[in-house]
Amino acid sequence: MYRYDEFDERFVRDRVRQFRSQVERRLDGSLSDDEFKPLRLKNGLYLQLHAYMLRVAVPYGTLDSRQLRQLALIAEKYDKGYAHFTTRQNLQYNWPKLKDVPDILDLLADVEMHAIQTSGNCIRNVTSDQFAGVAKDEVEDPRVTAELIRQWSSLHPEFVWLPRKFKIAVTGAEHDRAAIKVHDIGIRILRHAETNEVGYEIVVGGGLGRTPMIGKVVRSFLPKAELLAYLEAILRVYNAEGRRDNKFKARVKILVHETGEEEFRARVEAEYAKLNGPTVNAPEGEVERIAAYFAPPAYETLPERSQALETARASDPALDRFVEQNGFAHKVPGYIALTVSLKGIGEVPGDMTDAQMRAFADIAERYSKDELRVTHSQNLVLPHVKQDDVPEVFAALKANGLATANAGLITDIIACPGLDYCALATAKSIPIAQAISKTFADDDRQREIGELPIKISGCINACGHHHVGAIGILGLEKSGVENYQITVGGDASENAALGERVGPGIDADQVPGAVEALVSVYLRERQGSERFVDTVRRAGLDPFKAGFQAFVSGAGQEAAE
Amino acid sequence: MAEAKVNKKGPKFPVILVANDLLDGEVVFAAKDGGWTPEPGKAAVADDADAAAELEARGQAEFKANRIVDPYLVEVRIAENGMPVATHFREALRQKGPTVHPDMGKQAEYDVPA
Hints:
heterodimer; A: alpha+beta; Sulfite Reductase Hemoprotein, domain 2; 5-stranded antiparallel beta sheet; 19 helices; B: 3 helices; 5 strands; about 25% helix; Nitrite/sulfite reductase (chain A); DUF2849 domain-containing protein (chain B)
């Protein structure tokens, strides 16, 4: 894992001291609310519906056990005994007090963490594949690139006041688990078709929110050494030309869309040609220094499959099911990566108690080379588990309520905090997730339905990624009540697609029934091993619209009777 | 902070004044006996434009004095037990706390509107 150098350490400590002084000045009245607000936002501190909320950066979703224990301590001491993992692989505290925040930031700095650039119109936390470094289909560990971008983008003097927030994701694998096509910039590490050289495909202008867009490829192959200068060119074009007159049209996706893909590409290339690349790009030695931190841990030489695990699976159906559903093939023989679901039936997606965090830190330390990952679907990953150890890991997870075997299934739901916490929300989203989860609680049924990512947002800003859910749910306010729009066919992967509406908005209590109706259509129409999203693509929207409409009419009739 | 839309012609009475305490972020209400209260049941209720203006002036003064932030009026109805209950679901939720955590927020500490 990356470790802070002396510059990182000093920079973070300085920022804590600075923020402590800003809080003091706010409290004694020398800073007004208008002056203080941008300062607190630059340090990840929001004011939400019930309280302040502090968003802590987890660069590319990688943590060690020491860090997780510290996060648990903060949850226990300064919050209400829990924290929430987000779709940016970050962590949020829902109840911190302003007067405590400088102390919290100091505790974070003790474990090389902070909340800088987790808010505001700057380059946000760089996200990545949760299986970075262990996936079999990977060209290269994307975290080296993500860390390089983190260093380049942290307090970059030119890009601290962009037209709007800016999100970058990196994947090194063929199968995109980092949703790069719906980011402001998405980066895919790939090999050149002819030369086999490793480089980058650069995608710009994707995004969700009120105007969802799939990103466009602006460079199909960028030599690795040129990355930062090329990103700088993109950011310069955006910084100069992105709209600042209308917040809703300020993201780079609008600029790309309004300028046109070809013209935008030409402007980036023109800007790039003017840049003095060598002064911007990272020196080779620095890249090597960073890469060394991500060198694989010391693995044992083991057979491809563990006999001990096979035997244990044969006699324990729950373990067998857990490995089948939550296990992920590791590139090293004898190892496995495990997704640890934070989506127990009826639970709040992404929430974890301080006790669970501590227990999980112990498990990661003992069984996963002291490392864990946060996924953008609000789950955790143990990236380096010896297959021989899986029965023990499963038992330890189970003892802490962390062994739900539903990774990728219909109850593995992404939900934004929604109206239960968020000041911007127009409707609740967590209770909708809980109701769907309870409706589909049966393990066999979930397995029969298969991969079906449901994503729920409580407002048009789409923090719950509803546009790219196989089933997407958007909560809005309509005539003074909460109303939910349902889409199908969204996909966040390399085959990125935006979901389409199946009909008019419905009431909250109708949502689980509507999902049931859509699932019935899928099970009826499914051919072979098609996933839900495949069936929508092949069969089209009509059968789903019809199933939805029949449900809505039936529900209306029932209400009338 | 976004707030539930108050009617463009002005709010329907009665109203209460809600804000966040600057220091700890907690939702507070302008209290009947002056000052601020975290208890929804102790909120001062304004039945007409003059009383509402008085509440707003209090909010602005306290905002300038760095005691609270984001003060605004919230439309309520008076429940049978005399408690002011926000008529909009967002504000009603704010009077209680997260629905997904009945053990947290005002609902865990005070009498809250049903």
